[in-house]
Amino acid sequence: MYSLFRSVTSRIQKSSVLSKLLVVNMIFIISLSCLLGFNYVYLKNNVKEQVLETNKDFLDQLSGNLSKEWHEIRTAIYDISVNPDTKFLSIHPKNSRTYQTELLTYKDMLLESNLKLPFRAQISVYFPNQDMVISSDGTRNLNVFYDSLEVKNGLESCRCLHESNQLEQLYDFNKMILFAYRLFPEGYIFAQVEKTELLGYLNSETKLLDNVIVIGDQTGQPIVSTADIPSDAAGLEVHAGTTISIEGTTYTPIQKVSQSFTYTVLFSDSLLQERLQRTNGYTFGLFAVFLVANLAFLLVNWSMFKPLRQLASTFNGWTVPSATRNEFAIISDTFRKLNYATTSMQMEMTEQAVILEHNTLLRLLADEQYQMKPSVRQSLQHKFQSYMLLTLIEEDRYGRATDDYAEALEIVLSSVYPFIHLHAHNDKRIYIVGCSKAEELEELIAELLENHASTGEERYVLCGVSNAHTRLEAVGKALRESLDAISKHVPDPDRMTRVLRYEEWNNDQEAVLHLSIDKEQELVNYTLKGNSDAIHHFFDKMTVKTLKHMTFEQFRNMLRYLHDLLLVMMNSKKLNPSEIWDVAPDFNHTYHLMYLYNQIRKGYIDVAKRFALPNTPLLEQIKAYMEEHYANPDLSLTLIAEQFSITHVYLSSYFKKQSGYNLNHYMHTIRIHAAIRLMNSNPDLTMKEVAEQVGYSNAGTFIRHFKKISGTTPTQHAKLQQS
């Protein structure tokens, strides 16, 4: 062995400098190739396994959380079914002296139960012998209850809920899921869960993993999904090798079946895997650049190695011949490419670390018992030794989400504190900021809100700040504190931007307040009788005495309650929300209280005006109004819509559908026919005088429409009448 080693070393010593360089480079290239190949295979397989395990853990956690929520709803239904008050009220005579008192107590019990339910679920109880459905927001007969369901589900519902003989029944409607529970000997309990609330929860869970969540029934038919599922994939049986294509992306499903639902998670290559593959690409790019540079350095032409031979021969004398300009250019370009590839790899690895930190914090928000990887924990603890959570809500004067202040806030935070943007939903943004002094952070944000001039109009901005925390596992508690800082403060209508610090609130404070039965009946009477002035006074009085003392959460829930009450009255008149509002109030994503308040107030006033109109069909009322006011030059689509308390868009489509005419064309027809009658009875009038008396301020416009409708000009018509 020793002799073989000496033989090889002696041959190397006797070989030329070029041969030595070639041997050294080939050994280095082979070693680097093996190292890169091993790195590529390890990363590829390890990432795939981690993606699969992460999604399985995610499905187990998600199905467990949702099963727990469903169990809470079922438990609440069971508790109500065995409650003695339920049995007592079902057989209690409606004309009894104590009936109203018992009914109010029962409604309060339902309200208290609803406030504890997940996904804002609402429970109602139906007593057939009294033909009455009792909910926390009031009582109504069965037909009105079904009408309300049709309004909420776009006319898609079932009027057979009270006919099922099964103990439990699940109904899947357009915009909600409804549980029906049979009471014995007769009666039903209904639990309504809006799909938007459930989708909001699912979207928050799947934000980072870039997967699709599907909740289906026992047969696998989708009920709620975070993406549109193709019809050929509905009810698909999941087994090894199954894939589903959605919008050009192939997903692999993982499924879990519970007692009531089927939970399916569809996942593809996540952002983490894509970035790791890109990192491998940069690694092989670096290898290719290095290989080409070495080959170019060795094989371009013999003159390039002449300085190297001179360097080897004169090395002992420390004399270095001058290199050519071409050699320095090649070497400089090679090192520049190597530096670029190295920098790109560093950037990619930094982005991967940020994604892992982000993913870990999201998991901690959902489960504070989540076990973090040691490397990720160490990195997060270094950044966030002490931290606070910010919740930012930013909207324009129409309640639409904007991001002017959010962008400015991120720029300011990046220059002062470490932070991570955790959530970016349509309605709010959530940040974790490495800061230990709440006063400094509050002052920084307040200064930004005061000095930042948003583009265009004024913005409605609320920023909730949690207490300072040191344990990473408390990030979920910090999030609740930042949300409570917003929901528990008393709003000031005159302040559009506010920074709100978390305080210890009274947990016994009610989140939902309702009008008293007398006040509710008073508002309903004003609306049904068409007394819009009384409604003005009612809302002004309520603002002074009630709303100004409510917290943000109470104010918003009161507006939601008034909105639902208005929808019930609109349904009795068969009014569509598009007749009243260009854009209906959206309580799921809008937080601008004064915008919502003004929308609800306008809705009540416009509905009252509609109730005040005579029973004559709306089309006939519009025609009569135009016949009476055609001489008004300001008569227009907008003016007529305001007169009948409807939107101009609805007026235009309604008139076209009912009469077959365009409204503007019909208005010009009335004016031209009036002009013809006027010209026949008063032939001495000039064209300008005739035009002004029938509502045209411009004679040219009058002549153009006269010819278009009658087929002749006004002058030709006058001559025909004279002849």
UniProtKB/TrEMBL annotation:
Transmembrane residue ranges: 21-43, 281-300
One family name in Pfam for this protein: HTH_18
Coiled-coil stretches noted in the UniProt entry, renumbered to this chain: none
Gene3D superfamilies in the record: Homeodomain-like (1.10.10.60)
Residues annotated as domain HTH araC/xylS-type: 620-720
InterPro entries: Homeodomain-like_sf, HTH_AraC, HTH_AraC-typ_CS
Keyword Glycoprotein (UniProt): no
Keywords: DNA-binding, Membrane, Transcription, Transcription regulation, Transmembrane, Transmembrane helix
The keyword DNA-binding appears for this protein: yes
Classification via SUPFAM superfamilies: Homeodomain-like (SSF46689)
Signal sequence interval, chain numbering: none
PANTHER family, per database record: ARAC-FAMILY TRANSCRIPTIONAL REGULATOR (PTHR43280), HTH-TYPE TRANSCRIPTIONAL REGULATOR EXSA (PTHR43280:SF2)
Name of the protein described by the UniProt record: Helix-turn-helix domain-containing protein
Organism: Paenibacillus chungangensis
